[in-house]
Design brief:
Distance between the termini: 6 Å
Number of helices: 9
Helix content: 55-70%
Low-confidence stretches: none
Number of domains: 2
Mean pLDDT: 84
Number of strands: 6
Radius of gyration: 26 Å
Strand order of the largest sheet: 1-2-3-4-5-6
Largest sheet: 6 strands, antiparallel
Structural class: alpha+beta
Shape: elongated
Length: 365
């Protein structure tokens, strides 16, 4: 195997440009199709809210498209790899490159370099844009597509405990003593966990101590009494610091902020396996784009006239999709505590890196 991976600047630029164009074409096609299907399933819910119209649909699309790009960019790299390599093979360009003395690794090097640049772009895009879009979209969905909250640091679907009692909020915004919650439900329970009273409120703010619920509706289970009121203070044992720890959504927090948050959880004695696995996956996820040219490389080699080009393309596609299946399964196992967080995030990457290299070396080198 030759170690000069870029012997020709012209060839490197040609292959890189070819690859980038196909990645963008496949990504645009996937995002447009999936966005149309998503709008078909959710546009009715958005337009059902009084005052919503075309502007809200465009807002939803602007928040959903970054999530689709994050999820399907590695798939686009895989499909672009297969399209590019099959085309090069059919046109005998791979044969010409190998006849000129290039090894299989030298043929793939421009694609791997391009995929590494795409992975770096994906990481920055995910942590700078997708996290913000995810936080805003979840808060909007929690508001049932009503007015989008204007507060910063908005979180959705928060679950808190105060001894035996439980408090949930559809939306939470702000930090420290300035925390405000909307669509709050407080469950007063006995020592056995049975619900004694349910209190529903429009809004909750910190009362130092406790949380002042405004616009309340109370229901006592034992007597079935229903009453309304202006305000009440509950949850005296809940502090803003506890809520700051309880409201973290790893998908909506950037990589550089999630690490210190996990450390704070660990100092508080909280379970952090799921968040730590997702923290590591913020690195390994985008880097999966780098694997795709290696896993799809089997489609580049072998004579096109042999009739096995289609089979080779299927093998490359199967290897690529197998990685995504194993990656999701390992991450799920990490979330449940079956794997250590680092292993759950990185084991599929290194496993398929070795598989791809083994296949390439055994068949072509």
């Amino acid at each position: 195997m030759q170690l000069d991976f870029f012997p020709s600047r012209t060839l490197t630029l040609y292959l890189a440009k070819l690859f980038v164009v196909r990645i963008l074409a496949v990504l645009v096609m996937l995002v447009l199709v999936l966005m149309m299907l998503d709008l078909l399933s959710n546009s009715g819910k958005i337009l059902a809210v009084e005052g919503n119209g075309q502007g809200e649909l465009l807002t939803y699309a602007s928040l959903r498209i970054p999530q689709l790009i994050q999820r399907f960019l590695p798939y686009s790299v895989l499909l672009a790899t297969l399209i590019s390599l099959v085309t090069l093979n059919q046109n005998s360009e791979v044969i010409a490159m190998k006849a000129a003395g290039l090894s299989a690794h030298q043929v793939l090097a421009p694609l791997l370099l391009t995929a590494l640049v795409v992975a770096a772009f994906s990481f920055v895009f995910n942590e700078r844009l997708v996290t913000r879009a995810t936080a805003t979209l979840k808060a909007w969905e929690a508001a049932e597509y009503g007015p989008i909250p204007e507060e910063s640091n908005v979180r959705a679907n928060v679950y808190l405990t105060d001894g035996e009692n439980v408090m949930t909020a559809a939306q939470l915004a702000g930090r420290g003593n300035a925390i405000a919650m909307r669509k709050v439900t407080f469950y007063r329970r006995n020592a056995e966990g049975a619900i004694l009273e349910q209190i529903v409120a429009d809004r909750a703010t910190y009362a130092a101590p406790g949380w002042k619920l405004e616009g309340i509706e109370r229901f006592e289970v034992a007597t079935a009494n229903y009453a309304t009121g202006d305000e009440i203070v509950v949850g005296e044992g809940l502090t803003p610091d506890q809520i700051d720890l309880a409201r973290i959504d790893p998908d909506a927090v950037p990589f550089w902020e999630l690490g210190p948050t996990i450390d704070a959880y660990e100092e508080a004695g909280r379970r952090t396996g799921e968040m730590r696995a997702k923290w590591w996956h913020k690195l390994s996820g985008p880097l999966s784009s780098f694997l795709m040219p290696l896993l799809g490389a089997v489609a580049a080699f072998g004579l096109a006239r042999s009739g096995q080009l289609f089979v080779r393309a299927l093998i490359g596609m199967a290897l690529g999709f197998a990685y995504f299946v194993v990656d999701n399964a390992a991450l799920a196992m990490g979330n449940f505590g079956g794997y250590p967080p680092f292993l759950a995030a990185w084991a599929p990457f290194f496993l398929f890196l070795l598989i791809g290299e083994t296949v390439l070396i055994r068949t072509e080198e």
